[in-house]
Amino acid sequence: MTNSKLIIALTKGRILEETLPLFERAGIVPKENLRKSRKLFFDTNIDGVQLMLLRGSDVPTYVEFGSADMGVVGKDLILEHGSEGFYEPLDLGIARCRLMTAVRSDREMVSGRISVATKFTNIAKRYFAERGKQIELIKLNGALELAPALGLADAIVDIVDTGKTLKANGLKPQDLIAEVSSRMIVNKASMKIKHEIINKVLGQLNVVVKSDK
Ligand code: PRP
Asked: What is the whole-number distance in angstroms between the Cα of residue 34 and the centre of ligand 1?
């Protein structure tokens, strides 16, 4: 960890649309338009602070291994990855949604062994195991909502925001697994070595987050 810069990994996509305005209000502004560039690294108005764009599922890994000092990532992906490798000092309160089980609208969650399709395999395993329920896990990376209708799975575990995707695919939400929002995570060694700049960034973000409550 010889890099003297502070690298903040941001999650691409929907979360980014809420992250950038929040960062801007906190006084952290990229020097160019992230959405229009194919670059992955961006300088900001703060000397030595750089932003990096990643897929959400890669943010915990980059931060855990110190390739990024800090990251913005959904709680769902933190729960899936495990959070031993980093600190989670701030809930940004953005990109709120729920991690839920869902089944076909014309069915109930049956007892006995069921098949569950999800990309959140660790979360699903843990959730059903804690309830003493045996499941067969089916790992999918997208279009989960099709699985029950096609007979591939009895249930899914997925993110629900408006609920429109479930409804459009003949599904209904069942049980809440976790409330989700985006969090700031910080590499443990970086927190010691770069505490001054990290505390400055967290402090600036915290002011904005508090004013939104
Ligand atoms: C998530 C999730 C659902 C959808 C739910 O996908 O997997 O498909 O959002 O939103 P709704 O309740 O408002 O319909 P996302 O668009 O984040 O992309 P992903 O499939 O890459 O996770």
From this structure: 22
